[in-house]
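User: Hi! Is it possible to get a structure for several chains at once, not just one? Here's what I have:
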Amino acid sequence: MSSETIWPDEVFSDLDRNGPVPLYYQVASRLERAIRSSVIPAGSRLENEISIAQRLGMSRPTVRRAIQELVDKGLLVRRRGIGTQVVQGQVSRPVELTSLYDDLQSTSHEPTTRTLLHAIIPAPEEIAEQLRIAEGTDVLHLRRVRRSDGTPVAILENYLPAPFTDIAEDDLDTRGLYQVLRARGVAIRVANQAISARRAKGDEADLLGISRGGPVLTTERVVFNDAGEVVEYGIHCYRPDLYRFETTLVAK
Amino acid sequence: MSSETIWPDEVFSDLDRNGPVPLYYQVASRLERAIRSSVIPAGSRLENEISIAQRLGMSRPTVRRAIQELVDKGLLVRRRGIGTQVVQGQVSRPVELTSLYDDLQSTSHEPTTRTLLHAIIPAPEEIAEQLRIAEGTDVLHLRRVRRSDGTPVAILENYLPAPFTDIAEDDLDTRGLYQVLRARGVAIRVANQAISARRAKGDEADLLGISRGGPVLTTERVVFNDAGEVVEYGIHCYRPDLYRFETTLVAK
DNA sequence: AAGTGGTCTAGACCACTTT
DNA sequence: AAGTGGTCTAGACCACTTC
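Assistant: Yes, the chains can be modeled jointly so their relative placement is included. Here is the combined structure:
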């Protein structure tokens, strides 16, 4: 309740209609900035789509698309016959399809990596199945410890099929696996991921600096490229006191 | 490589152009069914959008929207200048904005609930902050154990602000919290959620039937309704050997 | 040069909510 | 009755990839 048709103005002063950045994206970005900085306050109602389109001098579908972006992000809520409103809470970024290295880097920590294992092995049955290749085919097996400011936060185990089996150990010291793949022209698009938890086993507790048998947060993911082919199978475990997955869910 | 322009035909035999179901949704559903049942095989390329539109007798934007739905779900991959292809792997359903009760029910288990705590309390600071209400305001505090076929799988702790503090204990025995809320006209739209892990503490191990100090998978979520208002704050913990979150990530 | 998806326009009609 | 978002049309031009 109590949501006036508030509407700020100079939010869209610098739209570039000839540049390479899509119009809808520019509008969405500026709207998001205005919402996150409370220039458009939480709970307030937006002007209707047609008015916005007229005032910005663009078509309604373009405005709609911009708004839809923010609805999908969970910042806005639309109701037919009512209007579009800003959600009350601040919104966390979704689970991104980036490597942990990028995540840590973007949150201004200093990530480092130590490689424990770097070997080419014939794929065991389960790995082959996940990678959609024949059992026994050569794959690159990696096991690394990821540190943030010197503190271990995760153990990363990865399996990569050809043509990535020649990735060098040195490449992975200063860059995340995904950065290395991107540099090789791999466009990562889709991943299937499962998150769960279990006791630390083997050397994991020592590597992470937690007590034996203590809890670890686990992920298992299969990553696909642009062409829908499998690029990587990863089994990771994280220190749960230092890491959590934050996401925004939007009802379909 | 090796992706022919395969294209089946009688997939779209029963489109209803006058019913209430949107055209793009019908097309997307039928396409998804065809892909999941391998009528359209993994890795194959789709016809281009304009041809599809012509053959189905609809406009290109409508076809585009249908395809986009499946791209967002991670079933299809689009590349400019190349075409649209089916992703290799089978796709898991994303983390849904449903209650655990619904989840368990839809996977054909028999969920039951035992309420441990059902009390109205003045909101402590942290709870008030999450619910965006004043400290000390009355909230409903719930603590329940969720079982699947008699086996405990989760401990659910929830805090609800007015006007939901009058939800009766009986209501929650046979239905999930979200079902109860929906029955009261609440349309759930957005949630911010964090997933992590920790040791079981207090009575949790006994309630879940796991060893003392064993690992539990935890979630913390703030749920918003249609109007962007906070409906619920929940802190849940799950038996990690019986529960995991599966999701499909799609690069923006 | 030809073919693909990406963006954008300028409307139209409808379903739903509020007055 | 008036106002809102939801869907759909029939085009247009562009950027990118392949031949």
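The helical segments of chain A are 23-36, 49-56, 60-72, 100-106, 125-131, 171-174, 177-183, 204-208. Residues 20, 48-50, 64, 78-84 of chain A lie near DNA strand D (CB under 10 Å from a C1').

User: Great, thank you!
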